[in-house]
Inverse folding.
C-alpha cells in the first residue's frame, strides 16, 4: 500500500512539473446561445497533500497556474493523497447579463467559492450529503445558479469530499446550461414522467378494483408488479427526495434501489406463474422460477449487513434482473409453442417490456449510446406492456367463459341421455311387471338414485350459470367505470366562457367507452375547440382519446400554442413520439383524425364579427350562414371549399388535409384556414361516424350530402333543437340495426 502511494506521488509530481511549464487554456467563454456547455475538458484540479491550505491560498495557486488540466482517473488516483480542488474561469463575452445553471458531479460534499476581481462574492455548499430542503435550488441534483454581468469574468473554486468509491470517470461532468433551456427541458421531462407515473397509478387502481371484483390472484400480482415499476422509476429519478422525504439526503437511502428492484422482480415472476398456471401446466418451469425468486430476494439485505459489498450487490442485482427477464421470455415462448392460448398476448407484452428494459439498462451503464429512447425504454415498454397485459387478462376471462359453456353443454347432453335411459327403464318395467314382481323394489331404488344424480347435475348447471352471469356483470361494471373516467376528462361545452356563443354536442359512443372525443380550451381571449376520431373504438380507442386530451392540454395550456395548424403539427409530433412510430412496413398505423377551430373573440363587440382559424386532419369544418349576413364575412377561397345553397342559407365546407395525426406517407404541415364569422353563423365539427352509418330502407350509408342538407334545413332552430333532430334522424336511420362507429357532432352558433 505504501509503495502504491509513492508511485502515485511520483506520477503526480511529474504531471505537476510538466504542466507548470505552460498555462492551460481553460477559460470558458459564454455567448447568448441556448446550448448546453460540457466543460469537463476545461476544468483544472489541484491536490493539497497537506490538507491545510485555505481557499484563498488555493485561489492563488490557481492564479499562478499550479492547477492541472483534468484527465481520466483523477478521483481514483488522488482520493487518498489529500484534498482535491477544482477550478475554472467563466467569461461573459456578451453585452448583456447571462443566467446559467451549473450542474455539478455527484459528490457527497461540494464547497463552491465564486471569485470576482480576486474577491469572494458568493459561497455555496451542496452535494449528495445534503437534503433538498438544505439546497439553494430545491432539486435532488447538485445545481447552482450562476449570473454573470456583461463582459465580466468569474473564477469558480470547488472543494470536494466524501465517499468516492462509487464515482466513475463519466460522472465527472461540470455542465453549464442556459437557465431558460434548463427550465424548459426539465419541465418537459417532468411532464413526461408525470404522465407515465399517472398511467401506472390509474392502472394500479383499475386493476385493484378488478381484483376485488373478480377475486383472481393474477390481478393482485399485476397491481404489485405495476407498483414496483413505479417505485423503480421514482427511485431512479430520486423523486422521493424531492416530493416526499425532502429532509433526507440521497446518500441516506443508497441501497433502496436494490429493494424496489427486487420487489418488482418478485411480483413480475409471481404474476407470470399465476397467469401461465406454471404450477399445474409447466411444473419444471415453476420450480426454476421459484429459484430465481430466491436469488432476487437474497441480494437486497447483503449491503445492509456488509456495506463494502454494495457495488457487488448492484452488479448482482443487474445480473439477476437480466436472468428474470430472459427466464420469463423463454417460458412465454415455450408456453406459446405448446399452444397455451393465454401465452399469446403475454409473450408479446414481455417482448416489448424486456427489450425496453434491456435497452434502458445497457444505456444507463453506457454499453449502448444513452439517448431519449434508451433512457425511456423501460417506460415505453411499460406502457405497451400495460395495454397488452390488459388484453391478455381479458382474453383469459373469455377462455374461462368458453370452458364453462362447454361444460354446460356436456352436462345438458348427459341429462338428455339420462332422460332416455329413464324412459327405457320404465318401459322395461312395464313389460316385465308380471314376470319380475320380486325385482320391483330393487329397480325402484335404482331409478331414485338416477333421479337424485340428475337433480344434482341440474343444480350444478344452475350454479355455473349464475357464476357466468356474475363474471359478465363484473366485466360490464369495470367497463362502465372506465366510461366514467373518460366522461370526467371531457369538457363541459356550456362552460366556454364566451357569452355570445351557444352550442350543442351529440356524443354517441358505439361501445360503452369511445374512440371519439371533444375538447375545448380558453386562452388569451381565444376559444379553441376540437373534435377528434381516434383509431378504433371501445377500450383501445378510449386509450388513444385520453392520450390526445393530455397532449392538447400540454400544447395549449403549457406551450401556449394557439395557431390551429401549429396545434395539429405539434400534436402529430407528440403522438408519433408517444407511439414510437417510425413509418416502417407492417407498423401499426394508430393515430387520429381531427377538426380544430380557434375563435378570437377580442374584436366581436366592436365589429360584430370575429376572426377564426381552422385546421383539419381528414375531418372538415361546415359553416352555415344566412344570405343576409354583412358583407364583411369572409371564407378563405381555395379549391377545397364547397357550399350548398338552400333558401336563405348557404353551407361552406372547409376541407381538411388528407393526412392523419400520426406517421403517414405525406407529412406536410397542416393548412391554416383564416376566416371571419358573423353573428348568426353556425359552425359544425364532427367525426365520420354519422355520415358512415348504415341504415335506412336499403341498408346504405347516410353520406355527407344528406348530413349537409339536414344541417342547413334546421339551421334556423336553436342548438338544442338541432341536436334533437340530428339524434332522432339517426335513430330512425339505424332502426333495428347496429351502430357501427362512434358518432360525435359539435355545433356552435355565434
Amino acid at each position: 500500500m505504501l509503495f502504491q502511494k509513492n508511485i502515485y506521488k511520483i506520477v503526480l509530481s511529474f504531471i505537476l512539473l510538466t504542466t507548470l511549464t505552460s498555462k492551460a487554456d481553460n477559460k470558458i467563454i459564454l455567448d447568448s446561445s441556448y446550448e448546453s456547455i460540457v466543460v469537463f475538458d476545461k476544468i483544472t484540479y489541484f491536490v493539497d497533500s497537506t490538507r491545510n491550505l485555505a481557499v484563498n491560498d488555493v485561489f492563488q495557486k490557481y492564479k499562478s497556474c499550479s492547477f492541472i488540466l483534468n484527465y481520466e482517473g483523477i478521483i481514483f488516483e488522488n482520493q487518498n493523497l489529500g484534498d482535491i480542488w477544482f477550478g475554472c474561469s467563466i467569461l461573459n463575452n456578451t453585452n448583456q447579463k447571462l443566467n446559467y445553471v451549473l450542474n455539478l458531479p455527484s459528490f457527497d460534499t461540494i464547497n463552491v467559492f465564486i471569485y470576482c476581481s480576486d474577491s469572494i462574492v458568493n459561497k455555496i455548499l451542496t452535494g449528495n450529503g445534503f437534503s433538498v430542503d438544505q439546497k439553494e435550488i430545491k432539486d435532488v441534483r447538485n445545481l447552482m445558479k450562476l449570473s454573470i454581468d456583461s463582459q465580466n469574468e468569474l473564477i469558480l473554486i470547488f472543494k470536494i469530499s466524501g465517499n468516492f468509491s462509487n464515482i466513475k470517470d463519466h460522472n465527472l461532468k461540470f455542465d453549464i446550461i442556459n437557465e431558460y433551456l434548463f427550465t424548459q427541458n426539465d419541465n418537459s421531462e417532468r411532464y413526461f414522467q408525470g404522465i407515465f407515473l399517472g398511467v401506472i397509478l390509474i392502472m394500479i387502481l383499475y386493476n385493484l378494483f378488478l381484483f376485488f371484483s373478480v377475486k383472481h390472484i393474477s390481478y393482485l400480482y399485476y397491481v404489485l408488479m405495476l407498483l414496483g415499476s413505479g417505485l423503480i422509476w421514482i427511485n431512479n429519478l430520486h423523486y422521493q427526495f424531492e416530493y416526499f422525504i425532502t429532509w433526507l439526503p440521497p446518500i441516506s437511502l443508497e441501497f433502496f434501489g436494490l429493494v424496489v428492484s427486487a420487489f418488482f422482480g418478485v411480483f413480475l415472476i409471481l404474476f407470470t406463474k399465476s397467469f401461465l398456471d406454471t404450477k399445474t401446466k409447466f411444473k419444471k418451469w415453476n420450480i426454476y422460477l421459484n429459484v430465481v425468486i430466491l436469488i432476487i430476494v437474497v441480494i437486497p439485505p447483503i449491503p445492509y449487513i456488509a456495506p463494502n459489498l454494495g457495488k457487488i450487490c448492484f452488479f448482482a442485482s443487474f445480473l439477476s434482473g437480466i436472468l428474470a427477464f430472459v427466464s420469463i421470455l423463454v417460458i412465454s415462448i415455450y408456453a406459446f409453442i405448446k399452444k397455451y392460448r393465454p401465452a399469446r398476448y403475454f409473450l408479446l407484452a414481455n417482448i416489448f417490456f424486456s427489450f425496453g428494459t434491456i435497452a434502458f439498462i445497457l444505456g444507463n451503464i453506457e454499453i449502448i449510446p444513452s439517448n431519449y429512447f434508451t433512457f425511456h425504454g423501460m417506460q415505453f415498454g411499460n406502457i405497451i406492456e400495460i395495454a397488452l397485459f390488459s388484453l391478455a387478462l381479458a382474453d383469459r376471462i373469455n377462455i374461462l367463459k368458453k370452458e364453462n359453456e362447454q361444460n354446460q353443454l356436456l352436462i345438458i347432453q348427459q341429462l338428455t341421455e339420462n332422460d332416455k335411459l329413464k324412459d327405457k327403464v320404465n318401459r322395461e318395467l312395464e313389460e316385465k311387471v308380471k314376470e319380475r314382481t320380486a325385482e320391483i323394489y330393487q329397480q325402484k331404488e335404482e331409478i331414485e338414485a338416477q333421479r337424485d344424480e340428475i337433480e344434482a347435475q341440474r343444480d350444478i348447471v344452475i350454479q355455473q350459470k349464475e357464476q357466468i352471469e356474475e363474471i359478465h356483470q363484473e366485466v360490464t361494471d369495470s367497463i362502465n367505470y372506465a366510461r366514467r373516467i373518460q366522461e370526467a376528462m371531457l369538457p363541459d361545452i356550456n362552460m366556454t366562457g364566451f357569452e355570445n356563443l351557444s352550442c350543442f354536442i351529440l356524443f354517441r359512443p358505439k361501445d360503452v367507452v369511445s374512440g371519439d372525443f371533444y375538447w375545448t380550451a380558453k386562452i388569451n381571449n381565444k376559444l379553441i375547440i376540437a373534435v377528434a376520431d381516434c383509431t378504433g373504438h371501445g377500450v383501445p380507442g378510449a386509450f388513444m382519446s385520453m392520450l390526445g386530451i393530455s397532449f392538447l392540454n400540454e400544447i395549449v395550456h403549457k406551450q401556449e400554442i394557439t395557431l390551429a395548424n401549429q396545434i395539429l403539427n405539434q400534436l402529430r409530433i407528440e403522438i408519433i413520439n408517444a407511439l414510437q412510430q417510425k413509418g416502417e412496413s407492417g407498423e401499426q398505423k394508430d393515430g387520429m383524425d381531427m377538426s380544430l377551430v380557434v375563435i378570437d373573440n377580442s374584436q366581436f363587440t366592436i365589429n360584430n364579427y370575429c376572426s377564426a382559424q381552422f385546421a383539419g386532419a381528414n375531418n372538415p369544418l361546415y359553416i352555415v350562414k344566412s344570405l343576409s349576413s354583412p358583407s364583411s364575412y369572409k371564407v378563405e377561397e381555395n379549391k377545397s371549399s364547397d357550399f350548398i345553397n338552400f333558401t336563405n342559407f348557404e353551407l361552406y365546407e372547409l376541407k381538411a388535409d388528407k393526412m392523419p395525426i400520426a406517421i403517414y406517407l405525406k407529412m406536410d404541415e397542416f393548412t391554416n384556414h383564416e376566416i371571419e364569422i358573423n353573428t348568426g353563423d353556425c359552425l359544425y365539427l364532427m367525426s365520420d361516424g354519422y355520415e358512415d352509418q348504415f341504415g335506412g330502407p336499403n341498408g346504405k350509408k347516410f353520406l355527407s350530402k344528406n348530413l349537409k342538407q339536414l344541417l342547413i334545413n334546421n339551421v334556423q332552430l336553436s342548438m338544442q333543437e338541432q341536436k334533437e333532430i340530428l339524434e332522432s334522424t339517426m335513430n330512425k336511420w339505424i332502426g333495428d340495426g347496429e351502430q357501427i362507429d362512434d358518432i360525435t357532432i359539435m355545433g356552435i352558433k355565434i
Confidence is low (pLDDT under 50) at residues 1-24, 631-643. Residues 75 and 712 are 78 Å apart (CA to CA). Residues 490-749 form a domain with the Phosphatase 2c; domain 1 fold (CATH 3.60.40.10). The first helix runs from residue 2 to 20.
